[in-house]
């Protein structure tokens, strides 16, 4: 049977002593955590290990002896190291020795209490204790395609990583401590710490208390009954700016929560949200400083009114073209004139409204620009809402055309069922057979003929305004895609993967250091970092969606039947 000994590379220069670590019987493996130097008192070592076991819940014990002699190995030292196995009584007793500056190590096991002692094949695996302790091993993302063998290997590696990670208290003592036990581990030369980090930890307590108070105050205002009355409730649910502010408010509640993160995933989620908010606000402040420099707000307000007039003129020219003979098509002149004049009147109202608001546009933009300090995503959502307000007349044209077209489509489908002796059963939600008399069939034929010959004129207006509406939706969709990207991108995890890739481990790989007959196989364990795609997939933050998500087939069906794209009210049950 193969015995695997995981030895920390930081202990290769340690003085002679005993090896403490965890024995994993299921894997026939020993995870060495530290080396206790001579001299020591065995009772004190046992008391220290029992205290570590109580705190870490890891079965830490003395696994063997370590010999690092600069000179030739003495027989007295060898006998002394073997006698330590009777004091600490661990089976098997592992003996690792390094002779002088030689690169060849010897590793053997003693089994004094075994009736049939066997010579085991030993594999000595070196690992970087600091990287293993600070890293987080991720299970395979695609569990459906992963085999049982891969899952078993992942669980074995997880046991090794958890052993090192949970033994953190063991690494909090260094050689400068006055305790009776001297250890060698990755922090034995000094505990790794940062003055800046400690100061930030101290300053974060009052900052979190203040942030919690402000967030609770804002949440109380948002939950007040004033916002539940119409039209405030309608605006709060339909404006993307309000949705984004509510989304960021939830993020602030997560960050300012006093509840400690229980798992690595929760800790990474908090860190990702904090970094996302920080970068979002920084980009928003940069945008705000750019807007208020060189009077760019005034230039933007001066170009907004001529742009709106130009769009209105283009729409008027388009309607004049539709009221004639567009592309040589013969339209129903009476319906064509009625629809054209109706839409022209709406454009006239819209131009009057824009010119009425023109003296206040610069002031409105000036105050709207201040909202960029809340974050770039809030500024983008405000831009999306401004586009929606400036193109509200296009939305009205689209709704009028879609409703008229939808009415004719459903009217034609209902009359077509009448010719076939069918009707739509509203209660059972299905098509049933039905008998009609002569008068009903005559009136149905007249209505079917009228609707059929009026359909091309209505369909042309519906097609033109649907294309304009789709153009506006595409622009708003690109803005919301950018907002969702900023909201959901795990920036902290990506920066961590870029700077310290070992912190996000997907697995390990082994490199052969020495392979010689009569000597243990020596391997170096290296951490395989998680790929960038897996980092984004694992730590992606949840986002909100302003619009319902439809498939391409559903979208094409809505366009053909005249149903509204992203309606403010969902379509109810089908009625005939």
TrEMBL record:
Task: Give a GO biological-process term.
Answer: GPI anchor biosynthetic process
Q: Which InterPro entries match?
A: PigQ/GPI1
- Which molecular-function annotation in GO is an example for this chain? transferase activity
The record's section on Pfam families has:
Gpi1
Mark the transmembrane ranges.
203-222, 273-292, 338-357, 364-391, 397-419, 440-464, 470-495
Listed under GO cellular component are: endoplasmic reticulum; membrane
**UniProt keyword terms in alphabetical order:** Membrane, Transferase, Transmembrane, Transmembrane helix
Spell out the protein name for this chain.
PIGQ acetylglucosaminyltransferase
Native organism: Ciconia maguari
Top-level taxonomy: Eukaryota, Metazoa, Chordata, Craniata, Vertebrata
């Amino acid at each position: 049977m193969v015995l695997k000994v995981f030895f920390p590379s930081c202990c290769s220069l340690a003085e002679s002593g005993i090896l403490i670590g965890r024995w994993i019987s299921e894997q026939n493996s020993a995870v060495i955590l530290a080396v206790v130097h001579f001299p020591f008192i065995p009772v004190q070592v046992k008391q220290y290990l029992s205290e570590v076991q109580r705190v870490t819940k890891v079965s830490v014990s003395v696994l063997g002896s370590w010999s690092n002699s600069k000179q030739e190995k003495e027989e007295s030292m060898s006998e002394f190291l073997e006698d330590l196995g009777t004091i600490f009584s661990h089976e098997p007793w592992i003996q690792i020795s390094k002779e002088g500056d030689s690169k060849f190590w010897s590793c053997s096991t003693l089994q004094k209490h075994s009736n049939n002692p066997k010579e085991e094949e030993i594999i000595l695996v070196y690992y970087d204790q600091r990287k293993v302790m600070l890293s987080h091993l991720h299970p395979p993302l695609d569990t459906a395609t992963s085999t049982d063998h891969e899952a078993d290997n992942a669980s074995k590696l997880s046991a090794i990583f958890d052993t090192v990670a949970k033994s953190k208290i063991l690494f909090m003592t260094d050689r400068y401590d006055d305790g009776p036990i001297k250890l060698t581990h990755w922090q034995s030369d000094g505990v790794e710490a940062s003055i800046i980090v400690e100061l930030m930890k101290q300053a974060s307590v009052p900052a979190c208390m203040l942030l919690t108070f402000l967030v609770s105050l804002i949440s109380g205002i948002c939950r007040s009954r004033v916002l539940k009355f119409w039209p405030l409730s309608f605006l709060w649910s339909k404006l993307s700016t309000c949705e984004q502010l509510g989304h960021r408010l939830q993020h602030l509640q997560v960050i300012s929560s006093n509840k400690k993160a229980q798992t690595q995933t929760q800790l990474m989620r908090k860190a990702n949200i904090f970094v996302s908010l920080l970068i979002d606000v920084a980009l928003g402040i940069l945008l705000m400083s750019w807007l208020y420099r060189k009077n760019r707000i005034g230039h933007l307000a001066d170009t907004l009114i001529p742009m709106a007039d130009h769009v209105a003129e283009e729409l008027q020219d388009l309607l004049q073209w539709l009221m004639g003979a567009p592309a040589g098509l013969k339209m129903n002149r009476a319906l064509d004139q009625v629809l054209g004049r109706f839409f022209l009147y709406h454009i006239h109202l819209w131009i009057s409204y824009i010119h009425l608001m023109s003296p206040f546009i610069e002031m409105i933009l000036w105050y709207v620009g201040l909202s960029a300090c809340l974050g770039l995503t809030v500024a983008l959502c405000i831009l999306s809402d401004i586009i929606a307000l400036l193109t509200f007349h296009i939305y009205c044209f689209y709704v009028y055309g879609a409703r008229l077209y939808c009415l004719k489509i459903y009217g034609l489908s209902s009359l077509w069922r009448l010719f076939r002796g069918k009707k739509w059963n509203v209660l059972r939600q299905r098509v049933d057979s039905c008998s009609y008399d002569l008068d009903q069939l005559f009136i149905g034929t007249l209505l079917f003929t009228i609707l059929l010959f009026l359909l091309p004129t209505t369909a042309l207006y519906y097609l033109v305004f649907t294309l304009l509406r789709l153009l506006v939706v595409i622009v708003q969709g690109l803005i919301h895609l950018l907002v969702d990207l900023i909201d959901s991108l795990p920036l902290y995890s990506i920066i961590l993967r870029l700077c310290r890739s070992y912190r996000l481990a997907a697995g390990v790989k082994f490199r052969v250091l020495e392979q010689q007959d009569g000597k243990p196989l020596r391997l170096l364990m290296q951490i395989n970092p998680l790929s960038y795609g897996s980092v984004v997939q694992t730590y992606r933050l949840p986002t909100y969606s302003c619009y319902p998500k439809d498939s391409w087939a559903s979208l094409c069906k809505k366009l053909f039947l005249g149903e509204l794209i992203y309606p403010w009210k969902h379509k109810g049950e089908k009625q005939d």
